[in-house]
Amino acid sequence: MARKKIALIGGGQIGGNLALLATQKELGDVVIYDIPQAEGMTKGKSLDIMQLRPHDGYDANLEGTSDPAELTDADVVIITAGIPRKPGMDREDLLEINIKIITDVANNVKKYAPNAFVIVVSNPLDAIVYSFYKVSGFSKNKVIGMAGALDSGRFRAFLAMETG
Length: 164
Description:
single chain, alpha/beta, 6 strands, 15% strand, NAD, L-malate dehydrogenase (NAD+) activity, L-lactate/malate_DH, malate dehydrogenase, NAD(P)-bd_dom_sf
């Protein structure tokens, strides 16, 4: 049976950590896709993770790229792309720019991975999930948002830091 292909769109902290976990757990071969200005970062993260393979004993493949054609035939697409919040911002402040980003992402996923199951992590989550759904034309059972687990983990970490 062929190994699944996982496309991570957005090579920042969350995308990079997901790439590490997905390859270590051999969930599938992984592609980290980001904009051309970040290609060096995605290639570097991929190389770092790939160099762990002999030590950790996994054989999943990983590639960093800025070429959307590398998303071709992905089984799962996880979207973390977007502008992160800066101090003093709330998630709604990200809406305008991240809608533009998700529109481009949705068009690429529709073109290169039209049968993928899509998990959106980008904020503001509900608006970004809905925008992806509308632009891509994917059926509603193929697009979900993931916020609860990440936000719950952050809450638990901050609570632990405050209470010791």
